[in-house]
Amino acid sequence: MDQPVTAPAAPADLDDEARLEAWERRSDIPLTVLSAAFLVVYAVQVLATRPGQPAWTALEAVLWLTWAVFVVDYVGRLVCARHRQRFVLANPVDLLIVLAPFFRFLRLLRLIAAVSVLTRVLRDDFRGRVGGYLIVTVSLVSFVAALGVFEAERDAPESSITTFGDALWWVLTTITTVGYGDRYPVTTEGRLVAAALMLAGIAVLGTVTAAIATWFLERVGDEQRAAQPTPADWTAVLTELRTLRNRVEELEATTPSERSPGR
């Protein structure tokens, strides 16, 4: 007897990936809002309080609670992912945030998702999207790096970064790879922030270079495509050839009496 035909089962990978995408869709907006609140709390703690003060302790507790939420989110996404090793390798920044609270401010990069609506008003091409995200990312990373290095350096002996203005100037010269050398970190924490910022500066230059190169390649490709004959051009040529052939056939079919004398 013939075996009944059954529909193939859906691959488990698709189900697991759907679970991961559903988790991320549900958590994206709350975590973006939480990241914004985290940035505000961190800025207030660095700029308006000092370690040991009651306000500093309260704000530190809020930051630790926020970090705990980020840990829960990471663990939840890890559980939903079928290929967990691949997930870990694909999200190294999130892993650093979970394992090293010092790097927790990198989670604020999720704020880029919050400005995606603003980037829609930019020109709907590759340069417009890259430009919008680049401005937001550089501004966010620069501000957070300034907060981080200022917190690490302001009370250090022989520090040249003693005000938030000094920190902003140092960030500007570092991320642009100018490096005047008039301001530099002397603490381990400050140097870790500097290393991350230097890598960010290289990434920014690479992104800008790649965007410009892509734009030129697109322009050259458009010009080459415009110079090539289109199907409509070939159709017009074939039509003209048919017309000429018909004219020749008409001339060859004329009677001798219709031709001019002189043979």
From TrEMBL:
<dbReference type="InterPro" id="IPR027359">
    <property type="entry name" value="Volt_channel_dom_sf"/>
</dbReference>
<keyword id="KW-0813">Transport</keyword>
<dbReference type="InterPro" id="IPR028325">
    <property type="entry name" value="VG_K_chnl"/>
</dbReference>
<dbReference type="GO" id="GO:0001508">
    <property type="term" value="P:action potential"/>
</dbReference>
<feature type="transmembrane region" description="Helical">
    <location>
        <begin position="192"/>
        <end position="217"/>
    </location>
</feature>
<feature type="transmembrane region" description="Helical">
    <location>
        <begin position="130"/>
        <end position="149"/>
    </location>
</feature>
<dbReference type="GO" id="GO:0005249">
    <property type="term" value="F:voltage-gated potassium channel activity"/>
</dbReference>
<dbReference type="GO" id="GO:0008076">
    <property type="term" value="C:voltage-gated potassium channel complex"/>
</dbReference>
<feature type="transmembrane region" description="Helical">
    <location>
        <begin position="29"/>
        <end position="48"/>
    </location>
</feature>
<feature type="domain" description="Potassium channel">
    <location>
        <begin position="142"/>
        <end position="216"/>
    </location>
</feature>
<protein>
    <submittedName>
        <fullName>Voltage-gated potassium channel</fullName>
    </submittedName>
</protein>
<feature type="transmembrane region" description="Helical">
    <location>
        <begin position="54"/>
        <end position="75"/>
    </location>
</feature>
<keyword id="KW-0812">Transmembrane</keyword>
<feature type="transmembrane region" description="Helical">
    <location>
        <begin position="95"/>
        <end position="118"/>
    </location>
</feature>
<dbReference type="InterPro" id="IPR013099">
    <property type="entry name" value="K_chnl_dom"/>
</dbReference>
<dbReference type="Pfam" id="PF07885">
    <property type="entry name" value="Ion_trans_2"/>
</dbReference>
<keyword id="KW-0472">Membrane</keyword>
<keyword id="KW-1133">Transmembrane helix</keyword>
<keyword id="KW-0407">Ion channel</keyword>
<keyword id="KW-0406">Ion transport</keyword>
<feature type="transmembrane region" description="Helical">
    <location>
        <begin position="161"/>
        <end position="180"/>
    </location>
</feature>
